[in-house]
Amino acid sequence: MYFLKSLSNEVKSAQFLFNRLSKTKQLVSGALFASLAALFQSAGGFLPGIGIFLSPLSTAPILFCFILSLPLGFIIYILTNLLLLVIQPSELIIFPFTTGILGMGIGAAFYFFKKRLYIIISGATLLTFGIITLLCVFKFPVLGPVISNNFSLSTTGLIFVFTFLYSWIWVELSLAYFKKLKTFIFF
User: Fold this and answer.
1) Is residue 56 a contact partner of residue 101, using CB atoms and an 8 Å limit?
2) What are phi and psi of 99, to 5 degrees?
3) What is the Cα 44 distance to its own chain's centre?
4) How far is CA 37 from CA 9, 95, 139, 153, in A?
5) Computed over its alpha carbons, how large is the radius of gyration of the chain?
6) Alpha-carbon gap, residue 184 to 187, rounded angstroms
7) Own/partner pairs for 38-44, CB < 8 Å, 24+ apart?
8) Using an 8 Å Cβ cutoff, are 160 and 154 in contact?
9) Out of 17-26, 69-78, 140-149, 162-171, least confident range
10) ∠ CA 26-8-78 to the nearest 5 degrees?
11) Strand partners, 115
């Protein structure tokens, strides 16, 4: 079955190569990823219209950092939040609970799991939790006026189905671009 196929050892080899880099190179790579994530996330505010399509790309730098190193990924996640505080504070409520947490969930899942299904479920669960937190705790209409701010199981189920599909897309995209990223960082 497709979802239960084990992933190749590409992730483990990339982690090994990344850990062999000097700490300076690791931090510089992480700073570059944090800058990219902050720029992509703030694109919605700086470039109305097209920026909405660039904003979801802020998941990628966080995801790749978490794939390479959990401690560095967490530092980059925090750094991106701090950069957003300076660059575009209005995006600070969106990033930690949506695109950032999705990158964290999928990247950390790549670190721990080898099967696509577990990786997708991890990302979808964290993203669902983040969206529900924005909707029900902060009363922030992240999904627009269509979805109510009151908690309901049917709404949560629909959000989980959407986040499962969205997480699946991100897992497949990250696997497809991981080889290109390896050549960018290590050579």
Assistant:
1) no
2) -65, -40
3) 17
4) 26, 9, 25, 32
5) 16
6) 6
7) 38/80, 38/83, 38/84, 38/87, 38/88, 39/87, 41/80, 41/84, 41/88, 41/91, 41/94, 41/95, 41/99, 41/100, 42/84, 42/87, 42/88, 42/91, 44/91
8) no
9) 140-149
10) 30
11) 6
Amino acid identity, position 75: I
Of residues 167, 64, 56, 164, the one with CA closest to residue 108: 64
End-to-end CA distance of the chain: give it in Å, rounded: 35
Question: pLDDT tens across 14-49, in order?
Answer: 788 888 989 999 999 999 999 999 999 999 888 888
CB 51 within 8 A of CB 44: yes
Q: For 86-98, how does the pLDDT look when each residue is reduced to its tens digit (9 = 90+)? A: 999 988 989 999 9
DSSP output for 79-140: HHHHHHHHH-GGGGTTGGGTHHHHHHHHHHHHHH--BHHHHHHHHHHHHHHHHHIIIIIS--
- DSSP, res 163: H
3-state DSSP call for residue 146?
coil
What the block records as the tokens of 77 is 């996640």
Which conformational region is residue 7 in: left (phi greater than 0), alpha (psi within -120 to 50 degrees), or beta? Answer: beta
The residue type at 119: I
Reading the block at residue 126, the tokens are 């964290």
Which amino acid is located at 69 in the chain? Answer: S
